[in-house]
Write a structure and sequence with these properties.
The chain is α+β, with helices and mostly antiparallel strands. It has three helices and four strands; from the N terminus they run E-H-E-E-H-E-H. It has a four-stranded antiparallel beta sheet with strand order 2-3-1-4, with helices on one face. A hairpin with a 6-residue loop joins strand 2 and strand 3. The chain starts with a strand and ends with a helix.
Length: 119
């Protein structure tokens, strides 16, 4: 059985931030810039609090079965909630999407490489 790779995106919006919390987020904004976005097992947070209160966590996970994506998505949502709660950040509209990369369509270069290797 092969290992499947999952990409999970958890989106939401900060809610009811105090002036101190907003200042802390602004001070750390460079570390959470979208240009640093990556899907990682521990999760990567991006936001632009100066523009809007939205945030995005990106998680990478793996599983053996197709159903494992559900557990991975639940874990990602829990991790996002925990990060926000540990810092006392209010949030709303938390939602997630997940993609099984083994089911993603191949890009043009990937199709060309697959033909060249005989797959």
């Amino acid at each position: 059985m092969s290992t499947r790779t999952f990409r999970i995106t958890v989106r939401g919006a900060f809610d009811g931030l105090t002036d101190e919390q907003r200042a802390a987020l602004l001070a750390d904004a460079a570390q959470h810039d979208v240009l640093r976005a990556a899907f990682t097992t521990e999760g990567t947070l991006t936001y632009d609090i100066a523009a809007r209160p939205a945030f995005v966590f990106r998680f990478a996970a793996a599983g053996e079965e197709e159903e494992d994506i559900l557990e991975a998505t639940e874990h990602a949502e829990e991790a996002a909630r925990a990060w926000l709660n540990e810092r006392g950040y209010g949030f709303k509209n938390l939602r997630s999407t997940a993609e099984d990369l083994s089911r993603a369509p191949l890009g043009k270069r990937q199709r060309r490489a697959a033909r060249a290797t005989g797959f």
